[in-house]
Every structure is written in C-alpha cells, then in structure tokens.
Amino acid sequence: MDPYSLKKLNEYRRTRRAATLLTDLEDGRDRVVAEGDQVAGELGEHIAKAFRSGKSGSVEADGHSYFLNVHLPPPRLVIIGAVHISQALAPMAKIAGFDVHIIDPRTAFASDDRFPDVRLDAEWPEVVLKDNPLDPYSAVAAVTHDPKIDDFPLKAALESGCFYVGALGSRKTHAKRVERLTEAGLTPEVISRINAPIGLDIGAASPQEIAVAVLAQVIQALRTRGLESKRGEVA
C-alpha cells in the first residue's frame, strides 16, 4: 500500500468517515476514495454499491480489474429513552453489529439493572452529545414521548446527516413535533427525513415487536444510503 494511502485511511478512520482503498490489479497502483467522492462510469457504480453493502472484493469495470477494500465506521444506534422498547431493541441491535448508546436523563429508567452490557448515560442528550457528536454513520431513535428529551437529539441528528432518524408517536404527536422543529429553524425538507411513526409498518403492537420494526428500518436505511437521490434523478 502506498504510504500516502495508508495515511489517508487512518485519518478517515479517526474521523469516522467511510473510505475504499481502490487497487488496480493490473499495475498495483492504489488510491483512497472517500464516500461521496465522484467516480464516473461502471467503477463509480461498483464503489457506491460497496459502500452500501460494506463488502470488499474484486470487480471488473471499464475494461480494468480492481480490488475494492472497504473501510466503514462501525454503525452507531443512539436510542433516546430507556423505555421498554429500548430494552428489546438494544440487545438485538448489538447482535446486528451496531454500537448501542442509550441516553435518558430519568434515572428511574436509565439504570444498569434494566440495561446490562449497554452504554448508558443518565444525562440530558444535549450534555452527552456535546462530547459524543453524531455523524452520518449514526442512527437516532427517539422513543421517550417527551419533547423536552426528544427534540434536541432529533434536531442534532438531522443537522449531522445521520443515516437514520426515527421518532415514536402518533401522527398528531408528530405534527406538533414538526411545528416545534420548524420554529427551531429546520426546513420542511429536512424534517421530512424523520421516520414517524417509527419503524417499518409490520403491524407491531408490543414493545418487542416495535423494536423489531425499528431495527429493520434502521438496517434498511443503512444499506440503501444514497439510493434516494438516485431515484429522484430518475424520476
């Protein structure tokens, strides 16, 4: 590997930015492509697909053979609210490969007994997220039903470009949420990125079923990053 490529990869790892080491299998030359960099033709399509899947491998593109070595930051799931849904969601998300972080200032809910083996902060989200900023490889699920707790991390998630933003609540509850976020300066286009009601529509009723629906929607969002804009271009 070229020393310059190694330096760039290490920098991207440090800043939680996805990158692919692109090696030409014919001449051995390599370069680093960060997610979002423009690469034309078939090769660009292969690289975009690799970023979505997280899988490395060899590809044929534009008459050349390449090896794509994909480096993705570990995906994070930040759950706002130490509630019953969170108790089911946290262990499932860990099994699925997510770094799980639960935030809830209500100490009666945010206890180690209720959430063993999970990072848990019994603090206000604005305090925790100041030292643990969100990024495009973070997902945020707000499930407290309390705007005093949920609104700040939802706004922070939208402004940080999180790959998934979801919020628990009825359509009436969400309509009021939209009003508050609009007053806070967010545009309708940005606010529309919130998945509300949260989770895939599978008819979930119990907290455990809702957790399954939420995790499925989070995984779907992770593996389809960037496809929304492509659909819009085709339309």
In short:
The protein has 235 residues and is of the alpha/beta class.
Q: For the largest beta sheet, what order do the strands appear in spatially?
A: 7-6-5-8-9
Estimate the helix proportion, in percent: 40-55%
Overall pLDDT confidence = 92
Q: What count of helical segments does DSSP give? A: 9
Structural class: alpha/beta
Number of strands: 9
The parts where pLDDT drops under 50 for at least 5 residues are 229-235
**How many domains make up the 3D coordinates?**
2
Element order: H for helix, E for strand: HEEHEEEHEEHEHEHHHH
InterPro entries: MoCofactor_Util/Proc, XdhC_Rossmann_dom
Organism: Nitratireductor aestuarii
Pfam families: XdhC_C
Protein name: XdhC Rossmann domain-containing protein
Explained architecture:
The structure is a single chain. With 235 residues, this protein is of the alpha/beta class. It folds into two domains: 3-71, no CATH class; 76-223, Rossmann fold, CATH 3.40.50.720. 43% of the residues lie in helices and 20% in strands. The protein has nine helices and nine strands. The protein has helices at residues 3-14, 41-53, 84-95, 125-131, 147-160, 171-183, 188-191, 207-223, 227-234, and strands at residues 19-24, 30-34, 57-61, 64-71, 76-80, 99-103, 119-121, 138-142, 164-167. The strands form two sheets. Strands 7-6-5-8-9 form a five-stranded parallel sheet, sandwiched between helices. Strands 2-1-4-3 form a four-stranded antiparallel sheet, with helices on both faces. A hairpin with a 5-residue loop joins strand 1 and strand 2. Helix 3 (84-95) packs across helix 8 (207-223). The longest helix has 17 residues, at 207-223. It starts with a helix and ends with a helix. Pfam families: XdhC_C. This is XdhC Rossmann domain-containing protein.
